[in-house]
Amino acid sequence: MKKMPKWSKITIIGTLMGTCFGAGVYAQDVLQRVDAYLRSDYKVVVNGQAVQLANPPLIYNNSSYLPVKELGGHLGAIVNWEESTKTIFINPRVNANQPAEGTATNYLDIKLQFPYAQYMDYRGATYPMLINNTDQAYYRLIDVERMGIRTDGLRKAKDKFTGQLYVSEAELKNVWGNEPPQISYTNYETIVITEEKDPLKLEELRKYVNDFQYLPINGVIIASNPIIIDKLPEENTYSYLTNDNGHFYRTKLTLTQSTGWNNKILYFVGSSSKEDIEAGK
């Protein structure tokens, strides 16, 4: 008797997504009917180790198709399916506390307590960084991403006062390994300003901070301790975060350009608005 091959022909429709997602209802124009083969005799080796898949590989047009969720688990990844957009998300699993299944975005709630800004060296470049110390050190997400550090898969924290996202140092250690950012001793400024490169604008912003750092109001000295100045998308506009006598404020600064002697370009802070970001929170 002739021995039958260890594979069988099947018909599949649409995207091959394994067993982790529901088929759902699809419009006719996105469906494609194809013939493929189940190959239970194929072996799969991941990182040098043979693995046994519950769902065998499919062969179609001389290409192998593997169940993405099963394979992702063996590769240390989390595979999530978003039904509303028909999207498969494959996220690296970099922390043992990461949920194995996708859920709605759930940020850890934190508040500004002891924030400070400094320049940090990382892989040949220097970057501004805002750090908030609470129960541990939290690094502001936009600064971390500016460094080129991937944070997908890391749990984020959300500051109640500014609404900005942070990542804890403990989480970041999973992605920067033995090469963490270091405090920069070659680029040191007491007033850290992000994204702005124009030396004239930087000079005026720092002058403004120094001029208005201590203000007498009704006989009381208000000490405005600078934390960080962030350049905003709008031209010549900045967000200035301060701690005024133990209370956090955010001031919107706008630079105005003028022409001085010998047609020299000058800048000055033409307007500003101050917001108590702790009010009502």
SS-based class: mainly beta
Span between termini: 80 Å
Order of helices and strands: EEEEEEHEEEEEEHEEHEEHEEEEE
In which order are the strands of the major sheet placed? Answer: 9-13-14-12-11-10-15
Question: What's the helical proportion of residues?
Answer: 10-25%
Please indicate the percent range of residues in DSSP E strands (runs of 2 or more): 35-45%
Summed up, the domain count is: 3
Number of helices: 4
Biggest sheet layout: 7 strands, mixed
| Estimated radius of gyration | 27 Å
Q: What general form does the structure show?
A: elongated
Protein name: Copper amine oxidase-like N-terminal domain-containing protein
Domain Copper amine oxidase-like N-terminal: 42-90
Organism: Paenibacillus qinlingensis
InterPro entries: Cu_amine_oxidase-like_N, Mao_N_sf
Walk me through the structure.
The protein is mainly beta and 281 residues long. The chain has 3 domains: 8-92, no CATH class; 108-183, no CATH class; 193-276. The chain has 4 helices and 21 strands. It has helices at 68-74, 141-146, 169-176, 199-211, and strands at 8-13, 33-38, 44-46, 49-51, 58-60, 63-65, 77-82, 87-92, 108-110, 114-122, 125-133, 137-140, 157-159, 165-168, 182-183, 193-194, 214-217, 220-231, 237-244, 247-259, 265-276. Residues 1-7 and 10-26 have low confidence and may be disordered.
